Amino acid sequence: MNAAPLSSLPTPCLLLDEARMRRNVARMAGHVHGLGPALRPHVKTGKSIPIALAMCGGAPGPITVSTLAEAEACFAAGFRDVLYAVGLPPNKLPAVQALRARGCDLIVLVDNVDAARAIAACRTAIPTLLEIDSDDHRAGVRPGAAELLAIAAVLRDGAELRGVLTHAGGSYDCRTAAELTAMAAQERAAVVAAAERLRAAGHRCPVVSIGSTPTATFARDLRGVTEVRVGVYVFMDLVMAGLGVCSLDDLALSVLVSVIGHQRDKHWLVTDGGWMALSRDRGTSGHVHDRAYGLVCDASGRPLGDLVVAQTNQEHGLIARADGAPFDLNRFPVGTLLRVLPIHACATAAQHEGYHVLHGDAVSAWWPRCRGW
Ligand SMILES: Cc1ncc(COP(=O)(O)O)c(C=O)c1O
Fold it and tell me: Residue 271 belongs to what domain range?
């Protein structure tokens, strides 16, 4: 594809600054490898083969997926070592078995005896991780819970207990570097304790898997951990910037929108970038800098002070100053192109079919996203 100017794109559309993405990938790889574990990037943020390859250093490597559709797409592109990191219900077992029969080393996840029984009943030694709850955030069993050993005992007969996994999603609710550092230590301590308990009971537990972008970034000691799963670091977003995980200059994703009108008495610019293009994520609502539905930049990606997308309808975005104060609307005539930095990159990217890949201000490629479950 020949490089094309931004003005040739339909709006709204998704832009990806490839240089920033590669810088984010290299920084996280250096940090994690420096602490010892392997990286098993989570491809759920990008859901795109060129991005998955970039996260693995250029060639297929171990990855994490959030849907079997991602597993299928990545397997077709040459990835073999794939962890499906959402608890497995029995109705997905036929699809898991089919992928494994075709040569994909698909690993699955459970946190209850019922799901473990269904996997064990297949009698095909499906490699299975046991999900540990390290922060009371979502799923998983506590490292000291009776279920831990009960699930392992069920898996022993018919499946293969590959190890333990946790995701400290509670890190997104931290507010200070000290809290994030403590959450990273808590994540490691919980999963290592679970692994030790399983080993003491006679189980093999080769894999000890952790990961969220905030905890991985703030981790200082990963002894006992074998792999780190990180996803949103590839693009970064305003939630990560608000947590101090990155700076605004690291944000690789933006949504290109056009000004379609003005509401002068209300001090609003009206654009064609509503929630269909941005998502409705309000992840910065508790932050010092609440960016509403996104921070507004000029067409080159430079933030325009504190202009934010203050409100969204399906296909309309209303841009205002974060404090509601007047600003010079005449600087933005109808047709002006603006870029909106995402609150939560995974949610914003999910609204689009693919990425217009940017080098500087020119578009050099189109990378499709994988969809569905
Ligand atoms: C199981 C699991 N592992 C890893 C991740 C990666 O987290 P992050 O996007 O913060 O890097 C997620 C994200 O939701 C997840 O659900």
Answer: 248-368
